[in-house]
Amino acid sequence: MKRPVKTEQITNLLRDRFLSGYYPGKSRLPDERSLVAELNVSRNTIRAALSALEQEHLITRYSRLGTFLNVGNPSTDNFCYYILPCHTFCDTRQNWHIYNAIHLLLMQHLINECNIRNLQYSMLPLSNDNTPEHLLAERLWNLPQNSKLLLTGAHWYRSISRLFIDKGFRIAMLHSSSKEVVENNSNFCFINTDWNVFLQKGFEFLKQKGCRRILFCTDKKFTNLPDNGCAVFQVSRPESALFDSKYDLKKIKTVFQKNKCDAVFLFNFNYVKEYRSINALFGIPEHIPVLINEFLFDVSVMAHPPFVIGLNHAKVIRTGLDFLFSDAPCGQIAVDDIIIYDKKHQPIVTT
Question: How many structural domains is the chain composed of?
Fold first, then answer.
């Protein structure tokens, strides 16, 4: 349910105050009566706004003690911002904390790592409705010069990439490549993986499961796939093509049946989110192992969850923070610590 306009306005006003240093870091905030008088709104509006900001971990409210700002002084050297991803990476603005598994993991590891390093952090949403068309660039502009930022889904931020440079932000782009935003800037680090290593790990896992004939679906054609003794039947489509009813699912099923495949590996292959089973989507038996790249979508809603392959997100966060809080030069950093997750999203130990 969408918040009333007045509540949204007060929420945005208070958020900007919290992040810009308007109030002293880690301080006790004015009580509700004071905010009601200052902002000339109802107490219900103030309470709704504070509740929303508490969900964003910007504040903590204690019974009989008051409301305290979780954000430290942004001008200090041990402060960073985690820019909340947009659009496909999270649900509605009101439920921003309900991410797919990958972003929950990233945030959890960020919190843990910041506690270990005694760093301060803040989660900063750049869109009230989680769409890249409605980025609020002023929120970035209000951040202190030379702020340290962690971003995911970097391609959403092309339209405001110049602002990153003008403000002198030092930025760690997680799961991103330099082509997605900006190149040759000394304050940018792009943290991703070597996709050949990623694919090799995936095919090796399926081989260990006893699979020898693998249907490999991807959004672009790979010419040099890892050779581990398995027969791989690749079905690709143009990277720019959107998945819709025109996509030839019959072809996928035909390739699967004709070649008697005994496993499916989906890599960067977009498909309709409403499907509760990948096996049903492609018309293949439910006992067939399916391995997917973790970016595809939240597997927790699926009737027959697949196996999932992804990066070690703790290492991704550590690598990003190492760059932000050092004088390391810019560039690409490959994180090759690959993890396979079972159907309950628990790590599998592979040999």
Answer: 3
